[in-house]
Specification:
The complex is a heterotrimer of chains A (472), B (415) and C (156). Chain B is α/β, with parallel strands linked by helices and 415 residues long. Chain B is built from 18 helices and eleven strands. Helices cover 43% and strands 13% of the residues of chain B. Chain C folds into two domains: 60 residues; 79 residues, 3-Layer(aba) Sandwich (Glutaredoxin). In chain C, helix 1 packs antiparallel against helix 2, helix 3 crosses helix 4 and helix 6 runs parallel beside helix 7. The chains are: A alpha/beta (472), B alpha/beta (415), C alpha+beta (156). At the B-C interface, strand 3, strand 5, strand 11 and helix 13 of B face helix 2, helix 4 and helix 5 of C.
Chain lengths: 472, 415, 156
Amino acid sequence: MTKKVTFTLDGKALEAREGQTVLEAATDAGIMIPHYCWHRSLGNPGNCRMCLVEVEGTPKPQVSCRLPAREGLVVKSLSPAAKRAQTSALELHLVDHPLDCPVCDQSGECGLQDYYMGIGRYVSVLREDKAHAKKRQVLGPHIVLDQERCILCTRCTRFVAQISKSHELGIFGRGHNEAVDLVPGRTLDNPYSGNLADICPVGALTDRDFRFQVRVWYLDETESICPGCSRGCPISAHTSTQRPWHNKGRRLARLKPRVLDWLCDEGRYGFSDFDSDRLGRLTAPLSEVRSALQTHRDDLAVVASGSLSNEDWKAFKSLFVDKLKVKRFLFTPEPDQVGSEDELLRRREKVPNLEGGRALGFGTEIKSLTWESLGQDIAGGRVRSLYVVDRDPAKVLGEKLLHKLELLIYQGPRMGKTGGLARYRLPATDWLEENGHFTNFQGKIQEYRQALKPLGDARPDWKIFADLEAGL
Amino acid sequence: MNPLSQKSRPDPILTKDFDEPRLQELETYRRLGGYEGLKKALASGREKLMAEIGKSNLRGLGGAGFATAMKWSTVPSEEKNPGPRFVVVNCDESEPGCFKDRVLVTKNPHQLIEGLLIAAYAIDARHAFIFIRGEYEVQYKILEKALAEAKAAGLLGACSIELMRGAGAYISGLDTALLETMEGKKAWPRQPPPFPTVAGLMGRPTVVNNVETLSMLPHIVENGGDWFAKLGTPKSGGTVLFSVSGHVEKPGVYEFPMGVPLREILAAAGGVKGGKKLKAVIPGGVSTPVLTADELDTVMDFEGPRAKGSFLGAGGVIVLDETTDMVMVAHNIERFLTHESCGQCTPCRQGSFWHERILARGLEGGGTAQDLATLERVGENITGKVICALGDTVGVVTRALMKKFPEDFKAKFHD
Amino acid sequence: MSAFTPEQVKVLEAWTKEYPYPVMGLIEALRQVQDWHRCVTDADEEYLAKLFSLPRTRIHEVATFFPAFTQRPTGRHRIGVCQGLSCSLAGAEHACRCLEKKLGVRAGETTPDGRFSFERMECLGACDQGPALIVNDELKGAATEELIEKLTEELR
């Protein structure tokens, strides 16, 4: 057990672990002391000088990010002296900062704006021309840099040094001539580059995908789980529906990490086409689908997706195993759903919930075909009908082979190649349009919530399965 | 006349043999009693040596004035922290007005090496380094030669001394930034704790001492701590070197006992150049606030200038005559600090540049009365809120100049 | 391909062994490269990064932080005139104008023949000899018109 100490912040007794900094302890207690450079996972270089506080018995203000809490310490972050120290630090941060908030993506979630409105509100006496530096510098596939907006808090350089360990960025030069920049010849293309837009407390590093699309105050936020791989990172889905003409009409504006500090680029940028290629109308009554299924139950194979929720898996099992007694299943991810992994977050399995299926026996007791054996079964006529859930066998096996099938049913949110070949298309909701649970590779069951209305006739997969079963 | 000749004044220590030809050579240095202090220190043992240095009231002469024995005593013992420990000589003298280290090394390199070996013995360091600014190429070569001589004569004992050059940054002269430079990093100061004596070079206990401080050691060991303490004032022992420049007849390095009135230093340097009237004196390098002609009785030890709102600093006395425009002086100093700001913390990086721009505009005729209030306010918002001593300096001298010479500023900043 | 001759490689490798920790040789190695190439190029930085087993970022940070290192070639002789307060009082501005006239370049520039580059420098620790003039880290004394004349004639 770590020893606990009690100190006083602005007249309030707070508990902290021994050695914990005042800033961190205050943050844990939900008290905001202004800061830029400190980040829980990136350390406390103490260079922004925003978190200055008054400490009883100490003549000079202290940076609370480097002030260890100790028993009996009396700290004031709201006293006139502390406020003045913070305001003056803010004023100096803003000396050369451009006044381009109206065209800056950070507007609305910018540390400079927030603190100016919170503790600043001074009248500017600046008469000098602002210093100029490189603008609109594309650093890599996802991030663009505006050096003039940068306050040199070093969060980004610490991220590429400590977290991604890719070292693309540094602070070069010295004094007021220094600037964050790429190492000559490098590109900011590490698998976690998108996090830089999140950790930048100002508008220096912004997201190319999000750039000029929506003002953040028009966004809605929903707690979700990233479906990009079997890690199941908690995320916030930021959606734009208030002004449909924004964000090129796309409803999903961006994804942000939640609970954890980071999100990989694959997850963050993997779903920007959420609204494209969607199935619209149900093309035939369910009763017709039902009777087709019954006719073909002996030569039927089912291809199911690892993006089904736990609720979906249950209804899936009930329909195909218990009711229809199907023998042939395929759960193996498509070849392009297996990718690279690392020690930080990314997992090889690029679907979120095969684990939920495994818990019900799919892929364990109920064996999975391989893509190759399914191909052979179709070619050999052993499989004459196929029920595909949110997968694209046409892409893997080729359209020609699928033409041999007597029945192809496709259920999923997007058309894909296979959807185009199917006799029946059952539009399903995608993860942002439904409530559900995913089980991640560690067996952790996590809830994701509906952020958007289903498009067209789309319904949750479990509901489709249940409705089919009910009529059989 | 050699301005360095101190024969007319009592008790010069560091400069006493400066008129001796070939003092740079080991043979000469030893003939005059050199390396006897080291011999005595080694014979007396560590505890006795520390006690003598403690008694001497020797304080760090690089500007901070921290008691030397106190600094050494914070090095953890071998049992507490086993492994190497280091002594580093700070010879990165770069502050406008200061050039005593250059002269000390040029004239008497062995005095420094002897002092360094004594310090290394005191804290049981087997590795010592002399970090010298890159622009002192001549002095680098002098030290290289002296070290080779000392080594050949077996004087280094178990201690190795290596030279390392800086690369042109004033901030490297700040102890923690110096250590960063030595570690092959940009010279961004660290924020103690831990202090270098606990975790310094490569995380190991390290004592960083100035050239002048270390050069004093052989003399203290030879003549005793009490002798040294008595030369100075109650809190600052011994003598101190003043680098005198600016509007004086004989710029140069002058050694005086601690506590000498500023007036005497000015007199030793031949007074104001060309018989002009004195306007002001910067007492300790451009990081120290200015003293007026009326403050010449200021006693020059670590306490004296403090009473007048200034500092002894590194003894860089810059004399300003009646023709000097104080706005130009302020601009020159803030431009220097802007150029030398490492850029790590915002108030220094932005504040120095803001100062420079306002003062430059004033010099060009674009100043307003509002600017003076801005300088005053912004300066106060920087001092005491930054990472290091350089940042603490931004605006300090400008504010003192504005206070003491308001008419100069009003002439350039008015509506 | 390395931008260094086998002899130069040996010199640089020696800097990794000069001090108790290899990284401590970095500044000296950079000084050496600057001396040979009159600048530190991208290729030089890449080489040193490998030699010292450090990220290239670190090398570039150091090479752009310290004024001794340049990214573009300087002249064979780097003439610097001190701008410190004492040297300013002693006529640094006049000395700079003399040099500019003599060399035909402004501060921060290099003569077309690559012989000289001229820099305004911060305190050189020679306030007693102001305005101090330095050539390639060696103090030459007060920048009088005679000294400027002499140096620009003598140095090839």
